[in-house]
Amino acid sequence: MRYDAVIIGAGVTGSAVARELSRRQGRFLVVERAGDVCEGTSKANSAIVHAGFDAEPGSKKAEMNVLGNEKMTQLAQELDIPFKRVGAFVVCLNEEDMPKLQGLYDRGIANGVKGLSILTGEEARKREPNLSDKVCAALFARTSGIICPFELTLGMAESAAKNGVEFRFNTEVQQVEKAGSGWLLHTNRGDIEAAALINAAGVYADALHNQACDSQLHITPRKGEYCLLDKTAGAHVKSTIFQLPGKYGKGVLVSPTVHGNLLVGPTAVDIEDKEDTATTAAGLQDLQEKSGLAVDRVPLRQVITSFMGLRAHEDGDDFVLGETAEGFFDCAGIESPGLTSAPAIGAYIAGLVAEKLSLPVNPGFDPIRKGVPRLHEMSPQQRAERIKENPAYGNIICRCEEISEGEIVDAIHGILGARTLDGVKRRTRAGMGRCQSGFCSPRVMELLCRELGLTLDEVRKNGAQSQIVLERTR
């Protein structure tokens, strides 16, 4: 079967391209080596919508960051996902670093960022009382925000699927080669033909680029470790707090999340292994030490989990976007601010592909996607009505996050339905709370078995090798 365009990778960038391509008529396919959307870099990051003051003026990072930020409010409304513009502070801890702070402000103005201002330390502490006394000044970015990376990625992917894009999971692209006027993808599940290829393969984007293009890319996995704190710590700061790079090093951020937790991180260490997502004692200790430089009394005793993500750092330190070989389009080197930039990257790449292939507008495109109803966000009257309509919404499975059986079942049977414990977690937050699935995971496994016709030993945490029950006892 020949497709007009095949997108390699179902992370936030690939899903954004897929959604934008679905505005056009054609046969489109997303292939993903993992078993679900949002299994790689997109699931483990800072969840920040950056304002755009950090990237070098004139770079693709700067352009896409600012455009993506501007698109986020409308996109969140269309996809039914949480997004809050809470603002961000970049704090300066030494008077000698003030020129660097001014430089960030000037760079933001050059990039077209709105709502920037430089505050004194006293002015910053009036807004954020838990800032350290060492803070002598701060850059405040009003347009910065926080979002859920799972829900953003899933929302765009489900919107794309709703509008006709096909998704094929557990499908690893092993080689790409030019074939006549198009491309041939050799995968572990057979060959696929396409008129155009979009490379959104994250830390593996260089390998695919180097098969297709005369020029060569090199991507280094940049390891970032995080600590997530309980919701009881979520109000410690109201905005995202960054540290200005200075004599103490780059520092780490402290930020609220859209779901009420507190996030601390990341570290930044370049590694070679593109599969290494293990946290380290040294990395977590580094987070504890550096987080306290800018924010006093960070309640680290309330950490409920830690995690690590890999960022795709390209040697040129910029996004690699565009047609880099005939009919081959790169979305490579997508590190921070990739999450923020994804909506703009999606529109840009989809526009190039549509022009290349002369794809007509899809008159039936529907931008509205509705997520799984969130019981804990409903009023008492809405809850009663929902439970009356579907009694399963009255059966709470995850106590920490107040997630019901009805929400989990709806997530399993959604347009790109959950097939694993982590798939349910990302769609509903069942298992995201203080006990980290300690109470609800057996119940979620039972629901996966019941709804999908699985046995307990067939249920997986995420991928094919993440078996939970090794064998059944009779």
What does the model show?
By secondary structure, the chain is of the alpha+beta class. The chain folds into three domains: 2-42 and 150-216 and 316-357, 3-Layer(bba) Sandwich (FAD/NAD(P)-binding domain); 88-142 and 220-314, 2-Layer Sandwich (D-Amino Acid Oxidase, Chain A, domain 2); 375-458, BFD-like [2Fe-2S]-binding domain (Arc Repressor Mutant, subunit A), CATH 1.10.10.1100. It is built from twelve helices and 22 strands. Strands 1, 2, 9, 10, 11, 12, 19 and 20 form an eight-stranded mixed sheet that branches. Strands 13, 15, 16, 17 and 18 form a five-stranded antiparallel sheet that branches. A four-stranded mixed sheet has the order 6-7-5-14. β1 (2-8), α1 (12-21) and β2 (28-31) form a beta-alpha-beta unit. α10 packs across α11 (421-428). The longest helix is centred in the first third of the chain and has 20 residues, at 60-79. The radius of gyration is 22 Å and the shape is globular.
CATH architecture of the largest domain: 3-Layer(bba) Sandwich
Summing up helix and strand content along with how strands pair, one would put the structural category as alpha+beta
> Any idea what the radius of gyration is?
22 Å
What distance separates the N and C termini? 45 Å
- Which range best describes the helical content: under 10%, 10-25%, 25-40%, 40-55%, 55-70% or over 70%? 25-40%
The CATH class name of the largest domain reads: Alpha Beta
Strand composition percent = 15-25%
Q: What's the overall average pLDDT, rounded?
A: 96
**Quaternary organisation of the protein chains:** single chain
Largest sheet: 8 strands, mixed
